[in-house]
Amino acid sequence: MRLFLFGFVSAFALIIVAGFAFIELGLAPVATSSPPLPFEKLITGIALDARVSKEAPTTSPIQPSDDVYFAGAKVYEINCAVCHGLPGQEQTPIAKGEFPKPPKLLVGKGVSDDPAGVTYWKVANGIRLTGMPGFQASLTSDQMWQVSLLLANSDKLAPKVMSDLQGASSQTAVPLKLP
């Protein structure tokens, strides 16, 4: 039994030393262009899902309406579009350089299959190690709910709301002219 315990402790110590060596020798992928470590997405996904399901609000204090969607679209254009994009717009240089790549929230189903409370939690708190900031200190609760409701219902927005977002993409996509 003593030999087994010694072997177990030795193996554990070797794993810790190898982990530190991996980091200290500069082998850990830290650049945004580096591929993720094995199981990195799985482990962080499990942790995020567990935390969000524990803390995300289940009901919205604001009822969805076109006025709420228009207000959410303005919040989205100013705070979210630089990373998550607008309909018909190419990815911005900021979005191209992020790791992991930010999801396009207004293309396809986006996060329309997530409850608005889950999106609200992510908007308010951000997500560590992804580039997704928390907006709790810079947006009001109403603004975070407006953008969350917009995204939760993005697959069924009125054509006028979608056309405003598409119009915003042509206004914000200004090419940089260098001398």
Write the layout of secondary structure elements.
Layout: H1 2-24, H2 40-55, H3 66-79, H4 81-84, H5 93-96, H6 116-125, H7 141-152, H8 159-172
Notes on the structure:
The chain is mainly α. The protein has a domain at 65-170: Cytochrome Bc1 Complex, Chain D, domain 2 (Orthogonal Bundle), CATH 1.10.760. 54% of the residues lie in helices and 0% in strands. The chain is built from eight helices and no strands. The chain has helices at residues 2-24, 40-55, 66-79, 81-84, 93-96, 116-125, 141-152, 159-172. Helix 3 crosses helix 7 and helix 6 (116-125) packs across helix 7 (141-152). The protein is elongated, with a radius of gyration of 21 Å. The N and C termini lie far apart (75 Å). Residues 172-176 have low confidence and may be disordered.
Identify the notable features of this structure and list them briefly.
Cytochrome Bc1 Complex, Chain D, domain 2, 179 residues, single chain, 54% helix, mainly alpha, 8 helices
Q: How are helices and strands ordered from N to C?
A: HHHHHHHH
CATH architecture of the domain at 65-170: Orthogonal Bundle
**Beta content:** under 5%
What is the multimeric organization of the chains shown? single chain
- The separation of the N and C termini measures 75 Å
Q: Count all strands and give the number.
A: 0
Shape: elongated
Unreliable stretches covering 5 or more consecutive residues:
172-176
CATH domain topology of the domain at 65-170 = Cytochrome Bc1 Complex, Chain D, domain 2
How many helices? The count is: 8
Task: Provide the helix percentage.
Answer: 40-55%
Structural class: mainly alpha
* Main sheet properties: none
- Please report the first level of CATH classification, the CATH class of the domain at 65-170: Mainly Alpha
Could you name the CATH homologous superfamily of the domain at 65-170? Cytochrome c-like domain
Give the integer mean of the pLDDT values.
Answer: 89
Radius of gyration: 21 Å
